[in-house]
Amino acid sequence: MVEISPLRTGADVRAAARAGELTGVTAGLAPGYVQANLVMMPAAYALEFLAFCIRNPKPCPVLEVCEPGDPEPRRLAPGADLRTDLPAYRVYRDGRLVERRTDVTELWTDDMVSILIGCSFTFEWALSQHGIRLAHIEQGRNVSMYITNRECVPAGRFHGPMVVSMRPFPPDVVPQVAAITERFPGMHGAPVWIGDPKGLGIEDLGRPDFGDVLDFGPGDVPVFWACGVTPQAVALASGVPLMITHDPGHMFVTDAPHAAYQV
Amino acid sequence: MVEISPLRTGADVRAAARAGELTGVTAGLAPGYVQANLVMMPAAYALEFLAFCIRNPKPCPVLEVCEPGDPEPRRLAPGADLRTDLPAYRVYRDGRLVERRTDVTELWTDDMVSILIGCSFTFEWALSQHGIRLAHIEQGRNVSMYITNRECVPAGRFHGPMVVSMRPFPPDVVPQVAAITERFPGMHGAPVWIGDPKGLGIEDLGRPDFGDVLDFGPGDVPVFWACGVTPQAVALASGVPLMITHDPGHMFVTDAPHAAYQV
């Protein structure tokens, strides 16, 4: 039996999160709409962070930047409030994860810059449109995410390792998977690695740093994409005074359709 | 007779510009290498300008951002100096074009942020690879560029009209031209307008705001792309204290190959 979520649009998901009715992951909700990773920080180092994103476009493709002090992403979701409309947030201070919250209004200051970063749910939508099966969806789990041994290109005070998401596929499907996802450069694009995880410094696929463990079918190959959780690894490594992000898997759901991001 | 330029690589072009031997346009030089639009400004408003670029990715696709005070684009051209390595610069102060120079070292301060923006020469290369003829190349001219009636999405103090470049093509070639250029989102991507220039507020194709007038073949259709000269129209409209740019057509030539930017 397939359950149809009553949260059909980005506005539905945001209203439920704002009302405190939704505090879980957003996978499968509002299936036609782009979801986004969130990073908020004081304007004092937002220029450096934007430079970091531009130097690392595969993990950090920027979809929208709000004015300092403005919590409304006016292009992707007019009327939304980034302080309340995600199901869950993480708060990083001085290089430590200090808190998980469902609302960050109390932490807001009028110099806060909010940045939305592309999310792999868009290319997952495209893969599904092509009839390609996704193991984590069929298993009812979140994707596996791993901190790699690949350093991002630093910018100002921002540095740290790239985080990747992993999805297993049968070998004959992998070429099409790479080709389809390449058409979404704003949503992490083509895979960064296909095959042996040791090449990324990942010792054990069964111990992800974020998300869930996935079961592999016989012969399945692990395929890795740069991941929008990277800024959270960067928050830990860089030790900036304050960075607020979404809680992994608990995304901001926009009003934009997935297909708008296909090149 | 086809003249082969002795300036075959980005490094050749940069060295000639640095030595003062090259002060003209860069079209046709170092044909395999990406050329870029340049924008320099104090760090105090560079965050706002980067937000402007992110909100207007068709005219302002960012290829690289340098650290404040660093004139070397370490990723696209290690060892280069953006203060000397372009054939010609424009200096905008308080919303006015005040000077044209071949070196901006004297204007440099240690808070200057340099931003490189994609250039249509890359998709022109791709069109040529597909055997598509470019009128301005055959006529030995620069493309025509026009200030349109389309306002860019503002960001902070930055606002102003979009500038477009125009190239004429026979009607049967236009679909392929659109499809090929769409594959280069970092280099302005697909056209923004095909046909009647009045829809962009352009009254007379024979009076471009930048570049040269082009001759049309019988039945040729004008095709318009968002253009990296847009920041210069924005400098005029926004009246920021200081913005240094390349002189239109006098680009920064990088070490990056065109094909690296094809999606």
Descriptive notes:
The structure is a homodimer of 263-residue chains. Chain A is α+β, with helices and mostly antiparallel strands. Chain A has 2 domains: 10-19 and 29-118 and 238-258, PSTPO5379-like, CATH 3.40.1640; 121-230, PSTPO5379-like domain (PSTPO5379-like fold, 2-Layer Sandwich). Chain A is 19% helix and 26% strand. Chain A has helices spanning 10-18, 46-55, 121-129, 135-138, 174-182, 230-238; strands spanning 33-42, 62-65, 89-93, 96-101, 112-118, 144-151, 161-169, 193-194, 210-211, 221-226, 243-246, 252-257. In chain A, strands 1, 2, 3, 4, 5, 11 and 12 form a 7-stranded antiparallel β-sheet that branches. In chain A, strands 8-10-7-6-9 form a 5-stranded antiparallel β-sheet, with helices on one face. In chain A, strand 3 (89-93) and strand 4 form a beta hairpin. Chain A is globular, with a radius of gyration of 17 Å. The A-B interface holds A 43, 46-47, 50-51, 54-55, 62, 64-65, 67, 75, 113, 153, 155-156, 182-183, 185, 189, 263 and B 43, 46-47, 50-51, 54-55, 62, 64-65, 67, 75, 113, 153, 155-156, 182-183, 185, 189, 263.
Using only C-alpha atoms, the radius of gyration of chain A works out to: 17 Å
Helix content of chain A: 10-25%
Sketch the major β-sheet of chain A.
7 strands, antiparallel
Oligomer: homodimer
How far do the termini of chain A sit from each other? Answer: 35 Å
Query: Which CATH C-level class of the largest domain in chain A is it?
Result: Alpha Beta
